[in-house]
Amino acid sequence: MFASYLIGLREGLEATLVVSILVAFLVKSDRRDKLPLVWTGVAAAVALSVGFGALLSFTAAHLAFEQQELFEAVASIAATVFVTWMIFWMRGAARRISADLRAKLGEALEVGSVAVAVMAFLAVVREGLETSLLFFASAQGAAATATPLIGITLGLLTSIVIGWGLYASAIRVNLTKFFTWTGILLILVAGGILKYGVHDLQEAGILPGLNTLAFDISAVLDPSAWYSALLSGMFNITAAPSVLETIAWTAYVLPVMFLFLRPAAPAKVAAPAS
């Protein structure tokens, strides 16, 4: 539930920030007549994202075992790529996202009404499609329960509450710190998703070594214990992973975490003209 909640919170807050910036710009510009166009674009983006998630689940449910494992592996690897790109993009864009969106919306208003709806749609649909893919990939290792769905729903609802509070100026959130801490947690989640993708490839017979274990700490990390279920559900940390799973997790998490936490290089100041 926590991994799904984190995905819903992080992706939902990004989408909510986008919508709140667009709405605030129109309200302050005395262009309230364009608000229905923004909500139309947002609704279309949400509908497409839900449909994409349903398509992923439907496709996976109607495949043979080997094909299903391969499909889930591809989805897990794609989700890892998307979440990595999203984490690094938001680290650099958190400070300038408001100005960029206001500039784009201003250009859309000059083009026409349809451009406003399209701009709102494109601004939200990326987050929605990422959320669907990440949720599908992270939920594959969970039991056949509604827990992941509850988690992502709570995360989305929390993001809406925070977004509304930011819009109404009722609360203040340091977005740079927020995206840094959630980025760290999402790197661990993405490492678990990649590890699960490697496991699927092994079960599909694409990669060898399914039964070649890197270690077995079942005596210490009891698979039936609540804390084992928590670690497995959050980060796919298991007591007896294969060698390839361990290599994949380590090869992803360590360098990505290092690059993410490395201080950004200071901007170069142009020398004054002589």
Task: Write structural notes for this entry.
- The chain is mainly alpha-helical.
- It has one domain (2-261).
- 74% of the residues lie in helices and 0% in strands.
- It has helices spanning 2-28, 35-61, 65-93, 97-111, 113-139, 147-167, 175-203, 226-235, 243-261.
- It is found in: Membrane.
Reconstruct the topology from this structure.
Elements: H1 2-28, H2 35-61, H3 65-93, H4 97-111, H5 113-139, H6 147-167, H7 175-203, H8 226-235, H9 243-261
- The number of helices is 9
Oligomeric assembly: single chain
Strand content: under 5%
| Backbone structural class | mainly alpha
Order of helices and strands: HHHHHHHHH
What is the count of β-strands? 0
- Rounded mean pLDDT score: 80
Q: How many structurally independent domains?
A: 1
* CA-based shape: elongated
**Fraction of residues in helices?**
over 70%
- The low-confidence runs, each spanning 5 or more residues with pLDDT under 50, are none
Give the N-terminus to C-terminus distance in angstroms.
61 Å
* Rg (CA only): 21 Å
Describe the structure concisely.
It comes from Acrocarpospora phusangensis. By secondary structure, the chain is mainly alpha-helical.
Question: Features of this protein?
Answer:
274 residues, mainly alpha, single chain, elongated
